[in-house]
Amino acid sequence: MLEELPSVFLVGPMGAGKTTIGRLLAKQLGRSFVDSDWYVESQTGADIAWIFAKEGEAGFRARETRAIDELTQHQQIVLATGGGAVMRAENREFLHQRGIVVYLNAPVDVQMARTSKDKSRPLLQQPNPRQILQNLYRIRDPLYRQVAHIILPTGHTYPRHMVHQLLQQLESFLVPTAIDRATITTDSGSSED
């Protein structure tokens, strides 16, 4: 029955688990998994840090928008987007109109724990990465919420348990009364990720 679902698009801050959850979800659904950042890199032939250095954030965001427009037109995929993808209105529209958007909501402490040693994130190569994450969360959280059909907190349970919760919520989109895709929020358990 879940094979009838449209594509699933994951949004949320860096370190929320979009790639981990996306891969597990795609496996459960028997679908292809795509990461929009990796897609941009494969199309460009350069990594995100290089694109930021040479073209600035605006150049990267333009490439990201083209990628999201193209990828959201694919049928029955699981797509993990970059943390800043929601900053552009056209990206939010592509995502919200073309599939089911899941916001993986990770608190700043979870983001810090998961990204502290990652040197591949250009926005965090600053003296105070916690402050940057807090500022980004404050700006982007309302946009994630605006585009989301499902809001799933992360950092409180194991990824496989989160995918199980998510699959249950996705089933509700197969019920005719859920066609309007009201936003669903889930409380998660207390065990650690």
Molecular structure report:
With 193 residues, the chain is an alpha/beta fold. The chain has a single domain (2-185), classed as Rossmann fold (3-Layer(aba) Sandwich). Helices cover 49% and strands 12% of the residues. It has seven helices and six strands. A six-stranded parallel beta sheet has the order 2-3-1-4-5-6, sandwiched between helices.
Topology:
Elements: E1 8-11, H1 18-29, E2 32-35, H2 36-44, H3 48-71, E3 77-80, H4 89-98, E4 100-105, H5 108-115, H6 129-147, E5 150-153, H7 159-171, E6 184-185
Parallel strand pairs: 1-3, 1-4, 2-3, 4-5, 5-6
Helix pairs in contact: 1-7, 2-3, 5-6
Number of domains: 1
Could you give the order of strands across the largest sheet? Answer: 2-3-1-4-5-6
Instruction: Give the helix proportion (percent range).
Output: 40-55%
Q: What is the beta-strand fraction?
A: 5-15%
Give the radius of gyration: 16 Å
**CATH homologous superfamily grouping:** P-loop containing nucleotide triphosphate hydrolases
Instruction: Give the overall pLDDT as a whole number.
Output: 87
CATH fold label: Rossmann fold
Characterize the overall form: globular
Strand count: 6
* Most strands sheet: 6 strands, parallel
Q: What's the order of the H and E elements? A: EHEHHEHEHHEHE
- Which class of secondary structure composition applies to the elements? alpha/beta
- Specify the CATH architecture: 3-Layer(aba) Sandwich
Low-confidence stretches: 188-193
Termini Cα gap? 29 Å
CATH C-level name: Alpha Beta
